[in-house]
Amino acid sequence: MSSYTTTLNLLFFYMTWSTLVWSHSPLRVEIFGTAAFRLAFFVIPSVVFFLFDVLTPSAAVVVKEHGEAGLPGGRKRFKLRLKEFKIAGWSLLNLGLALFTQATLEWLFTRVLRVRSAIKVSASLPTPWTILQDIFTGFLFREGLTYTMHRYALHHPSSYLTKLHREWYHDLSLPFPLTAHYDHPLVYLAHRFVPTYLPAMLLRFHMLTFLLYTAAVSVEETFAYSGYTFMPTSFFLGGIARRNEEHMIYLGEGNFGPWGILDWILGTSIGVTDIEEDVRNEAHDHQLGQKVRQAMDANARKVHVDTLRRNGRKR
């Protein structure tokens, strides 16, 4: 029965996807699809987190890794300045700039140069193995490009972008919601857009693969730059968040890649945010979760026994 239901769901999805592809231009499918996934997995949750920090700082400070210093207003949590809202506004504008740049590139490829699109938009569906393989390879490319751009273009003494990056992004003391996309627009394109979009373009992702890839990147950016102590997984997102915080605290002396792989290999890791530390933190969180569940189970058994005893005495 479950196999029959799965087949029907896949058939329905294929029919819906085929109808969408056949009824709209590839450029429209790519841009509107990318915008929808960015909106769902980054903009909406990040705006909610930002408003939570701004409107209820007393509650937000409890779940901040660095306490009051991690709030949008810093230690002056009840004296928000226009600066914090400008940061949020620039972040959203940069995200719009990335979508515009993506649309411009696709228009140049398909309408001017008359070559195939960067992202493959077709009615055929990729296999699950192809999707996973492409996403994994894309993230590896993204790690290498981000590290290279960040270290040699944004933190090199002779680079023009270094000054802009220092005056914009490194003017922040700590990350808070929406700051994943905050920087000077030129720096943003070099540091965020190029390392994210170029792997998908070189590997020519299928549109469905690209949407899942975009969702994964968006979730990473949402949580890793939120400043919160809770993460869906401490090993990946928690490690990325800690490395980014150390990068800001030490004013860009290291931790140039999001995953920390190249930092670990090339000796540019700073603080205590290496891969071994991520593994220990993940193991600690796992053990802590087990202990909490065991304590809750033991407490439930104790309450059950006490209830039985009281009922026995009443009889």
From TrEMBL:
GO CC annotations, alphabetized: membrane
Localization:
Membrane
**MF annotations from Gene Ontology:** iron ion binding; oxidoreductase activity
GO BP annotations of the record are: lipid biosynthetic process
* Keyword Transmembrane helix in annotation: yes
Location of the Fatty acid hydroxylase domain: 137-268
Mark the transmembrane ranges: 6-23, 35-52, 87-109
* Xref: Pfam families: FA_hydroxylase (PF04116)
**Main site of residence?**
membrane
Listed A to Z, the keywords are: Membrane, Transmembrane, Transmembrane helix
PANTHER family, alphabetically?
Answer: STEROL DESATURASE
Q: Protein name, please?
A: Fatty acid hydroxylase domain-containing protein
Query: What organism is the protein native to?
Result: Penicillium cataractarum
